[in-house]
C-alpha cells in the first residue's frame, strides 16, 4: 500500500505494521455523501459492512448504484464507439465541468440517444449503398449475358435465313416458322438474377439441378473484387447468377434455394434501353448515398471527439459516485433515519486527518450537526498495513505473496530488501552479466514516469513493478561477480596482479603444481590464477559449498531470533522459553558447530575431513578424532553439544502443551475478569471470543506441538541441505558461461574467418541473453524466493493476517471494471 507523500505522517516503519484502531463514525444524512467522498480522497479507512445480512437490492442506495451502473454502461458504449474509429479519450479537462450526477445523467442520455440514432441511420444508409452496389453489378454482368445471347441469336437467325434457299442435311425437320405461327406451342421462360457467395456457388448449382431435375439453365459470372454483403457488412467474394426456368413451381423452388444459400436477388429487365437507364439511375443514387454517408461520418466523428474531450472526467465522476454509494450501503441507518453509523479500521496516525475531513464535510454541506468520531475497543484482529514506497513495495509484495503478516508481527520484508538480492547474486555471480542486468533495469527506472502511465503487457508490467528489486539483484551480482572474479567467465587482475607465478615455462599444462606464490595474497575475491586450472573446480566447489552452509545457518538463526522478538512483543513467555531457546540450542549444536568448524579450517589451513567429523559425532561420539581434530577439547565439546541437541527436542515438545492447559484451567475458573490491555489478548483470545467458551482440546494442542517439533528437527537438516542450491546454481551459471565463451566465441575466433566470427558473436550474444540473462535469472529468482519463503520465514512468520484495503479513490485506477 503506497504512501503518497504526506509530510505530516510519522517516519516509515516496516518492522511492524501500523497500529490500527476500530472507529465508529456517526454522520448526519445530509453530510454523509460529502464525508464519504472526502474520506475516499484521504484513503485511510477500511469500512466494515454493517448490512451484510441484506441483499444488494434491499440496501438504502440501491437506486443510486443502479443509476451509476447505467451511466457506466453508456460510458463503455462511448469508449467502444471511439475505439472503433481510432479515437482515444484526451486527458484535458472540459471547459464547463459537470459536477452534478443528475446533470451528467441527462447529458449522457442525450448523447447516447443521438449517437444511437446516427449509428442506426448510418447502418441503414450503408446497407442501401451496399445493396445498390450489388444491384449495379447484377445489371452490368446480367446485361452482358443478355447481350451475348441476343447477338448469338441474331447470328443464328441470319445463318438460318441464308440457308433457307436450299435444302441441306442440317435443315430442321420441323420448320421454326411453324412453331412461331402457333402461339400455343411457344414456351415462356422466366429468369431470376442475383449474387451468391463464391464458396457456395458449386453447391448452389448442384441443388438447383437436383431440385428442378435439370429443368433450369444457370449462368454465372465471377465478380473480380470482393463486395460488401448488405446483411453481414463483411467483404465476400461473390458470383452473379442468372437462372432461367419454366413454370411457377420451379420459380418457388428456386426462391427457397436462394434464401437458403444467402443469395441476394435483384429485379432485372430484358429491355436494353431500360437496362442502361437503370444503370445510370443506380450510379446517381450511389453517389448521393456516398455523399450522405460521408456527411454522417463527419458528424459522428465530431460528436465522438467532443465526448472524448470530457470522457475521462465523466468516467472518473461516475466511478467515484458509484464507489461512494457502495460505501454508503455498508453503513447502517440510525432508528431516527437522520444519521448513518459507520465502523471501520484506520491507522492511529490518521486520526487527525479523518477528523478534519469529517469537519470539512459538515461545513461544506451546511449541516447543523457535526459528525461524531469515536474509537471502539475490540478483541477482533485488525488488518495489517505497511506504509511502503515505490522502492520497498515490490519487496513487501514478495513477502505478501506467501502470506500477509499477522497484525504487528515481525515483517520479513525488512530483511528481504537485502537478503533476497544477495542470495540471488550468490547464484548469479558474474559482474559482466550483472552490468547487463543493471543497464536493462536502468532503462525502466529512467523512464518510469512515462512507463507508469502506459498499459504494458503482463510480463513487462511485472518486470516494471519489480525494477528496484532487479536493480539490487544486479548490483549484488556485480559484487559477487567481483568476488568470484568472473566477467562472462573471464578472470581479470582488477585489484592486483595474481599472487602466483610460473616456476618454469613447463607450468603451462594448467595445473597448480607448477605455480609458486610470489606476491601477497590477492586482496579481493578469487585469485585469477585459479581459473583454467585442473584444480579450479574442486577448489570452487569446496569454497561455494561451505559458503552456502554458512549463509544458510546465519539466515536460519536470524529467523529464530526474530521469533524471540515476536514472543517479547506479544508478551508470550512460553514461546521464549519453550520455542526460541531450544530451537537455538538444537540448530547451533549441530549446524552452528559445523559453521564454526568451517571457519576454523579456513583460518588454520587444516586438512581435517568435516564429513567424517559430523558423521562420527553421532555414530561414535566417544572415539578419538585423530588427524581430524581442529582444536583441543573438541571431543568433549562435541559430546556436550550432542547432549544439548538431544535435550532440546523434548524441551520443545512436552512443557508447552501442559503449561497452556494450566493457563486455560486458571482463566476458565474466573467468571469475570478485566479486559486485558496487553497485545496478547488479540492473539490468544480472538478465537475464544468468537466461539464462546469452547472446550480446551489438549489432544489437539499436543498433536500440533508434536508436528511443530518434528517439522523443526527434520527441517533443520533439510533446510541446511536446501541452502546448497546456492552452490549448485552458482556452479551451473559459471560452467554455462564458460562453455558459451570457450566453445562459441573462442572457437569462432580460431577460424580466422570474418563471417564465422560474426556468426559466432551473434550465437554467443543470443545464448548469453536467452539462457544466462533470462532463464538463469528466472531460475535464481525462484530459488531465492523458495529460500525466503520456506527456509527463512517458517522459523518465525505466521502470515495468517489480512491486508488493509482502505476505501480510496486513488485505487479506482487499478480496479477492473
UniProtKB/TrEMBL annotation:
The keyword Metal-binding does not apply. One of its GO terms (cellular component) is vacuolar proton-transporting V-type ATPase, V0 domain. The chain crosses the membrane at residues 422-446, 467-484, 547-565, 577-600, 636-654, 754-775. One of its GO terms (molecular function) is proton-transporting ATPase activity, rotational mechanism. This is V-type proton ATPase subunit a. It holds the Pfam family V_ATPase_I. One of its GO terms (biological process) is vacuolar acidification. It is found in: Membrane. Keywords: Coiled coil, Hydrogen ion transport, Ion transport, Membrane, Transmembrane, Transmembrane helix, Transport. InterPro entries: V-ATPase_116kDa_su (IPR002490), V-type_ATPase_116kDa_su_euka (IPR026028). It is a multi-pass membrane protein. The keyword Cell division does not apply. Belongs to the V-ATPase 116 kDa subunit family. Residues 94-128 form a coiled coil. It comes from the Eukaryota. Essential component of the vacuolar proton pump (V-ATPase), a multimeric enzyme that catalyzes the translocation of protons across the membranes. Required for assembly and activity of the V-ATPase.
Amino acid at each position: 500500500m503506497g504512501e503518497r507523500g504526506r509530510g505530516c505522517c510519522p517516519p516509515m516503519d516496516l518492522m511492524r505494521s501500523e497500529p490500527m484502531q476500530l472507529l465508529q463514525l456517526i454522520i448526519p444524512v445530509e453530510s454523509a455523501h460529502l464525508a464519504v467522498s472526502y474520506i475516499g480522497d484521504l484513503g485511510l479507512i477500511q469500512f466494515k459492512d454493517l448490512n451484510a445480512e441484506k441483499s444488494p437490492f434491499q440496501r438504502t442506495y440501491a437506486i443510486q448504484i443502479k443509476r451509476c451502473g447505467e451511466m457506466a454502461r453508456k460510458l463503455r458504449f462511448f469508449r467502444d464507439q471511439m475505439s472503433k474509429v481510432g479515437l482515444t479519450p484526451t486527458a484535458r479537462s472540459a471547459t464547463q465541468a459537470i459536477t452534478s450526477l443528475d446533470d451528467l445523467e441527462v447529458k449522457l442520455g442525450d448523447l447516447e440517444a443521438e449517437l444511437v440514432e446516427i449509428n442506426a441511420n448510418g447502418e441503414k444508409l450503408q446497407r442501401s449503398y451496399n445493396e445498390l452496389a450489388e444491384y449495379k453489378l447484377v445489371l452490368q454482368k446480367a446485361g452482358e449475358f443478355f447481350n451475348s445471347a441476343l447477338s448469338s441469336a441474331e447470328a443464328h437467325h441470319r445463318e438460318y435465313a441464308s440457308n433457307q434457299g436450299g435444302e441441306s442435311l442440317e435443315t430442321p425437320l420441323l420448320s421454326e416458322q411453324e412453331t412461331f405461327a402457333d402461339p400455343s406451342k411457344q414456351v415462356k421462360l422466366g429468369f431470376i438474377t442475383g449474387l451468391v457467395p463464391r464458396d457456395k456457388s458449386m453447391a448452389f448449382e448442384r441443388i438447383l439441378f437436383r431440385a428442378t431435375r435439370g429443368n433450369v439453365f444457370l449462368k454465372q459470372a465471377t465478380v473480380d473484387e470482393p463486395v460488401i454483403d448488405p446483411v453481414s457488412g463483411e467483404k465476400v467474394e461473390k458470383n452473379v447468377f442468372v437462372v432461367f426456368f419454366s413454370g411457377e413451381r420451379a420459380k418457388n423452388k428456386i426462391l427457397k434455394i436462394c434464401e437458403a444459400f444467402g443469395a441476394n436477388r435483384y429485379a432485372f429487365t430484358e429491355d436494353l434501353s431500360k437496362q442502361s437507364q437503370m444503370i445510370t439511375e443506380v450510379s446517381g443514387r450511389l453517389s448521393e448515398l456516398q455523399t450522405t454517408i460521408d456527411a454522417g461520418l463527419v458528424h459522428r466523428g465530431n460528436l465522438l471527439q467532443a465526448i472524448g474531450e470530457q470522457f475521462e472526467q465523466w468516467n472518473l465522476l461516475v466511478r467515484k459516485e458509484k464507489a461512494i454509494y457502495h460505501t454508503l450501503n455498508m453503513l447502517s441507518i440510525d432508528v431516527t433515519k437522520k444519521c448513518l453509523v459507520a465502523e471501520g479500521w484506520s491507522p492511529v496516525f490518521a486520526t487527525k486527518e479523518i477528523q478534519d475531513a469529517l469537519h470539512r464535510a459538515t461545513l461544506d454541506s451546511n449541516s447543523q450537526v457535526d459528525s461524531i468520531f469515536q474509537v471502539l475497543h475490540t478483541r477482533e484482529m485488525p488488518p495489517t498495513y505497511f506504509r511502503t514506497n515505490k522502492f520497498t513495495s515490490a519487496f513487501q509484495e514478495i513477502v505478501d505473496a506467501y502470506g500477509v503478516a499477522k497484525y504487528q508481527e515481525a515483517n520479513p520484508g525488512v530483511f528481504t530488501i537485502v537478503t533476497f538480492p544477495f542470495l540471488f547474486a550468490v547464484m548469479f555471480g558474474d559482474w559482466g552479466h550483472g552490468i547487463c542486468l543493471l543497464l536493462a533495469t536502468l532503462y525502466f527506472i529512467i523512464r518510469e514516469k512515462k512507463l507508469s502511465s502506459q498499459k504494458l503487457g503482463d510480463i513487462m508490467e511485472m518486470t516494471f513493478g519489480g525494477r528496484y528489486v532487479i536493480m539490487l539483484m544486479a548490483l549484488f551480482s556485480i559484487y559477487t561477480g567481483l568476488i568470484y572474479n568472473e566477467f562472462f567467465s573471464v578472470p581479470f587482475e582488477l585489484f592486483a596482479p595474481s599472487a602466483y607465478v610460473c616456476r618454469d615455462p613447463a607450468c603451462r599444462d594448467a595445473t597448480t603444481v607448477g605455480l609458486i606464490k610470489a606476491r601477497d595474497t590477492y586482496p579481493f575475491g578469487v585469485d585469477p590464477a585459479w581459473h583454467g586450472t585442473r584444480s579450479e573446480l574442486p577448489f570452487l566447489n569446496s569454497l561455494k559449498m561451505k559458503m552456502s552452509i554458512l549463509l544458510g545457518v546465519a539466515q536460519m538463526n536470524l529467523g529464530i531470533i526474530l521469533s524471540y522478538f515476536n514472543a517479547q512483543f506479544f508478551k508470550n513467555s512460553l514461546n521464549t522459553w519453550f520455542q526460541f531457546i531450544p530451537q537455538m540450542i538444537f540448530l547451533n549444536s549441530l549446524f552452528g558447530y559445523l559453521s564454526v568448524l568451517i571457519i576454523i579450517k579456513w583460518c588454520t589451513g587444516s586438512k581435517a575431513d568435516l564429513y567424517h567429523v559430523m558423521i562420527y559425532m553421532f555414530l561414535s561420539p566417544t572415539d578419538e578424532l585423530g588427524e581430524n581434530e581442529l582444536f583441543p577439547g573438541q571431543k568433549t565439546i562435541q559430546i556436550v553439544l550432542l547432549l544439548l541437541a538431544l535435550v532440546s527436542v523434548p524441551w520443545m515438545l512436552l512443557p508447552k502443551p501442559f503449561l497452556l492447559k494450566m493457563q486455560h484451567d486458571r482463566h476458565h475458573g474466573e467468571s469475570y475478569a478485566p479486559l486485558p490491555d496487553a497485545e496478547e489478548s488479540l492473539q490468544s483470545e480472538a478465537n475464544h471470543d468468537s466461539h464462546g467458551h469452547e472446550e480446551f482440546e489438549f489432544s489437539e494442542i499436543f498433536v500440533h506441538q508434536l508436528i511443530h517439533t518434528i517439522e523443526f528437527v527434520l527441517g533443520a537438516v533439510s533446510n541446511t541441505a536446501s541452502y546448497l542450491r546456492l552452490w549448485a546454481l552458482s556452479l551451473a551459471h559459471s560452467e554455462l558461461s564458460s562453455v558459451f565463451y570457450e566453445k562459441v566465441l573462442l572457437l569462432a575466433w580460431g577460424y580466422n574467418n570474418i563471417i564465422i566470427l560474426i556468426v559466432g558473436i551473434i550465437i554467443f550474444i543470443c545464448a548469453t541473453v536467452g539462457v544466462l540473462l533470462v532463464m538463469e535469472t528466472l531460475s535464481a529468482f525462484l530459488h531465492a524466493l523458495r529460500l525466503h519463503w520456506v527456509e527463512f520465514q517458517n522459523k518465525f512468520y505466521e502470515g495468517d493476517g489480512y491486508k488493509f484495503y482502505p476505501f480510496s479513490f486513488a485505487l479506482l485506477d487499478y480496479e477492473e471494471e
